[in-house]
Amino acid sequence: MNLILKKTLDDVLSKNCVIQVFGLGYVGFPLLVKLCTNGFHVLGIDNDSKKIERIQNGELLESESHLKEIVLKSIHSGDLVVDTQSAKSEKPRIGIICVPTPIPTKSIQSDIFVKDAVKAFLEMAKKGDVIILESSIEVGTTSKMKSMIESMGYKEGEDIGLCFCPERIDPKNEKWNLENIPRVIYCSDDLSFKIAKEIYQYINNSNLLRVKSAEIAEVVKSFENAFRLVNISLVNELAILCDKLGINVRDVLDAAATKPFGFLPFYPGAGAGGHCIPKDPRFLLESAKKLGLEFKTLENALSINIQMPKYVVDSIESLLIEKKLKKSVIICGLSYKPDIEDMRDSPGFKIYNELTERGFQVALYDPFFKNELSQKYVIENNIKDPDFKILPNLSDDSISSYDCLCIVQHHSKLKDRLKEIYKNSKIPIIYDCQGNLRFDPSSNSTLKILGG
Ligand SMILES: NC(=O)c1ccc[n+]([C@@H]2O[C@H](COP(=O)([O-])OP(=O)(O)OC[C@H]3O[C@@H](n4cnc5c(N)ncnc54)[C@H](O)[C@@H]3O)[C@@H](O)[C@H]2O)c1
């Protein structure tokens, strides 16, 4: 029996430990609050000092606003502490790593932030501490963290436990959330698994499937998102075919979905965005490349995904030329999916880049857009012309000088207004990337649906 990690397990059972969550973003912050409200001593660490200040003042993101009351109360009572630095503790420390993992390039490795966070944790570590990686990581990253642990003179699985439990959260999914999504986990040893189970009891009722190796868990995470990307790209290519055939892709999908086995419906759009689906499959490509292999399905899926905004712009341009209208477009929906504020790697901004390159007059609208985050959006989306025009709303006045409304994301809060714009013919052309609007013969606006 390993007495060091056994002592940690006993301490975790009595909550006599400190949980340090590194990275207080979409993944780390709700986790931190959940553990805090379940009676753990927690410390949230983020190297963005503005974010720390924002949290301390209770200024939360829209997606976090339901936590505001409890966050303010816990900060006030001292139960919730957030800082830019980790801290030592005499109690066992459990470090949960939720930092970003960027697409690897020549100058940046995907584990750059994970390494920084693990290093910061290890610099204050002692025997009995445990690290749980939650970030989506490339194959081999957990093994690199094991080397980091050993380079500090500790034995992984004896002095320090190491787990990888990839986050699977799907923002705004009505059915599946932090509390009920089952998780896959790799643990260096049985006691670390018991420790993790005890902690995840308060997260997802310990619904954890332990896999045999870190590499299995790493491939599982990337493969899940590769599966989604491939299917999204497949249906987007089908939408392009249906456009040419003059049939509606949704009629095809609804009919195909009656097959009770071997078919899963995915729906077309201007391309998958965000910090997960277009990124994680690249980790598998990297693994394949390192082994001298190709992963052609993924390469094709990524290239179709990149092409989608261009396809949307080609279609809009042809329509405007055909109808002899001005090259003026409003892009509605800048987040990467409906009803969220996250604008990372957004198809709406890709459409913006393409339209401005082609000399269109473009305006942008998203009810989740925050002026104070403009610079962040520019960096995250590689925006070529940062002097974008943002409309304050979709009122008749705001849209009157444009000839096309391109709906990239159907936010629920815009449902009625978008219907009204179409029904009352407020703009000559509506291009609906998600196909939520229904054809209305009484409208004088032209409605074009991607794949319809
Ligand atoms: N957002 C999602 O829906 C989602 C879902 C599943 C998995 N993931 C994965 O989870 C990880 C985190 O994603 P996210 O969306 O929460 O990212 P995020 O950008 O919202 O938050 C990450 C935070 O980490 C901070 N940070 C960076 N380096 C740090 C360091 N060394 N120490 C402390 N803080 C540091 C950043 O300042 C940022 O606030 C990524 O690997 C992502 O792929 C995200």
Automatic annotation (TrEMBL):
Gene3D superfamilies: NAD(P)-binding Rossmann-like Domain (3.40.50.720). Keywords: NAD, Oxidoreductase. Residues 330-439 form the UDP-glucose/GDP-mannose dehydrogenase C-terminal domain. The keyword Coiled coil does not apply. Transmembrane segments: none annotated. InterPro entries: 6-PGluconate_DH-like_C_sf (IPR008927), NAD(P)-bd_dom_sf (IPR036291), UDP-Glc/GDP-Man (IPR017476), UDP-Glc/GDP-Man_DH_C (IPR014027), UDP-Glc/GDP-Man_DH_C_sf (IPR036220), UDP-Glc/GDP-Man_DH_dimer (IPR014026), UDP-Glc/GDP-Man_DH_N (IPR001732), UDP_ManNAc/GlcNAc_DH (IPR028359). GO terms for biological process: polysaccharide biosynthetic process. This is UDP-glucose/GDP-mannose dehydrogenase C-terminal domain-containing protein.
